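Today's session is about reading a structure prediction critically. Students often jump straight to the picture, but the first step is always the sequence itself: look for stretches that repeat, for charged clusters, for runs of hydrophobic residues. Only then move on to the predicted structure, which in these notes is written as discrete structure tokens rather than atom positions. Here is the chain we will use throughout the hour.
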Amino acid sequence: MIAFSHYDITLLLQAMARTIVLSLGGGILGIVGAVILTALRLSEMRGMMPLRVLAVIYVQTIRRIPFIVTLYIVFFCTGMMGVDVSATAVAIGSIGLIAAAYLCEILHGGVKTVPVEQVEAALVLNLPLWARWRYVIAPQAMSAVVPPAVGYLVLFIKDTALASQIGVVELSQAGVILTNRGLPSAQVFCVVLLLYFAISYPLTCLSRLLEKRIAVH
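Below is the predicted structure for this chain, in token form.
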């Protein structure tokens, strides 16, 4: 059995923390972006038509571009513009850009599952916009949104490994560094696998808990 040194353990824990930061930061940006994009796509105001079209184009385009390509585009564009940001910040921003597009599609689809009759009934009752969303649309849409959204975020945790291409030392890159130092590859990456599982499993449990609470309500 391999014996990890203090340096090895420190490297793995730091890389695990960086993976969590990438996933959490990119996820938060993605959720905020998805809400904005969905609001634009659902807007029926005439003056919002150009923004609505741009939102649709953004979602349909970004979802068809591989994450690594988006990562390189953001990385090189920030460099050409002279913006001084860390590789970690570039990775978080790239994750947020793609997550916003995918989560927008999930959120938009969930909202569309709400029966039109119920939305029209809320309008007949003269409920204000916030009340329609709070009491009619959101509770019903969540059952269709939560499982795929959490599932997507769990999958995206693994995609953070691509951040190593611009110099971010996350979990997979830490495994490569340790194997390059002569440690057995199989054992090192078994540990890396367990650390990825430790990050993603709580999200899966949270998804199940939210599904149960939604079902009760």
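Discussion point for the tutorial: The chain has a mean pLDDT of 86.
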